[in-house]
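Hi W., the cobalamin complex you wanted:
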Amino acid sequence: MLYTDDGPPNAGRPMIRTPEQIRALEPPQVADSPCLVKVLEATRGLKAAGGEETPIIGVVMSPFSVPVMQMGFEPYLNLMFEQPDLFERLMRLNEAFCIQWANAQLAAGATAICYFDPISSSTIVSPEHFRRTGLQVAMRTLAAINGPVAMHFASGRCMPILDDLPRTGAAVIGVSMLDDLAALKQRTAGKMALLGNLNGIEMRRWTPQQAEAQVRAAIAAAGHGGGFILSDNHGEIPYQVPEDTLLAISEAVHRWGTYPLDISRESPSAQPLKDPRS
Amino acid sequence: MTQSEPVETFLNALLAMDRVAAKRTLEGSTAADARLDVVERLVVPSLERIGDLWERGEVSLSQVYMSGRMCEEMVDAILPPSDPGRVDQPPMAIAVLDDYHLLGKRMVYSVLRASGYELKDYGTVDGEALVSRVVRDGIVVLLISVLMLPSALHIKTVREALDRAGCRPFILVGGAPFRFDTELWREVGADAMAATAAEGVAVVRKLLDHLPKEYRS
Ligand code: B12
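Structure:
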């Protein structure tokens, strides 16, 4: 792992150096892993302090996305396209771990699980490829998790695969600012809730007024009829975002996000400071 | 045959990841004396189009990645690395700052090489190592790829250290943080950003066209 003072830890050199190593791998056991046990202790502590009032969201990496960190992105793409048998074996190993880890967090008091799966996003693999791979993995994995799950694309796009997502069993999907939030809402209403989609990176430079405008626009696009959780579009806000901006966002949510909404559906979307290029 | 027809055929072969058809189109339009020309006419526009399609969400990353790799191989075959027929250019290098996630860099490297350029690949480096290599190699065009926001912010320190060393390369940056905040490149002291690998080639080409002669070769 690479640690820095100014951001989240980053995975260091991948541990799987050749695809052949996959044959001999075994999934780790949660109870044998001190860092995972520590997360469970923290979850129990939060549950004790927050009771039924504050939801606690546990996190897992999807079996389909974690190989980027296990073996590197380029070797993983090659594995997917050139060695389907080893790819399949890696998925089964990662699924076993992912299910075990999600259920351990739920047992420790997590209210729901966020399943991060950006590799399934249409930014990374084509919708047809997703249907053959990431979708199958998500269906098998989510079916064995004993609680509600949000499927999160970590700011990758999901519009082209939207109609496939209810089959995963996810109750919520985490969506990107690169997709049109109002259109997503229209197509998912009554089927899945949306979680998103503020631009956490650009947020560093927002004034309190811009923060309010962005919050208001997101609520106007997706708040009507419920089923919307406002957040950034990646599930993690950079340390560099000033606290005042976060407080302005929170204030704006209280102001514009209380039902019945005092905001018209037609209200024009707030534009990003400049068009993002993704 | 219209001008755009071979581009269309080549593009479709790349997107279908069909090496044989792509090679056939490329060889079909190569006169022995115009190898760089076919790169300019066929390879560069196709990769540019694929980059645009990815930006618009119409093709997936795996298609962009595979197209870059296939073109790099094919261009290497007709224009080997030290061939005088390659682009006349000053020393150029690419690096990933503070990160082991190298796919973005790999794609930029492939697409530049497939467009006839040569560049040193420094792999994963920290700021200090990057500065000393750039100074040592007399790099004139420096490409930096990052994945995380903190690494993007560290580019500023790299620029300052290069300035102190009296070294002023053109710095072209890219990677997710720059795509999500299109003002960030200025803040970190870069000279330009590009949203896709193919757009990076366009920036490099334009820069080299305007570079004084003494910087070349
Ligand atoms: C897929 C993904 C993942 C995957 C794989 C990431 C990887 N490559 O290693 C996984 C699931 C592992 C992951 C994990 C994390 N991620 Co992530 N992830 C993404 C996502 C959706 C796509 C990134 C990607 O790999 N794209 C494919 C590559 C090839 O594209 P690219 O690097 O952008 O390169 C293209 C262009 O940018 C350009 N380019 C790139 N470099 C250069 C250089 C030059 C000179 C030029 C000209 C062009 C150029 O060319 C390429 C092709 O055209 C992005 C969001 C997004 N929509 O982009 C977040 C994102 C990169 N992730 C982010 C974060 C924070 C993380 C985590 C730290 C989260 C956490 N707390 O654990 C972890 C740590 C990752 C790690 N390495 O350990 C943030 C980073 C920014 C920040 N906030 O600091 C992003 C931007 C999300 C966001 N909106 O905030 N992630």
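The domain at 56-256 of chain A is CATH 3.20.20.210 (TIM Barrel).

W.
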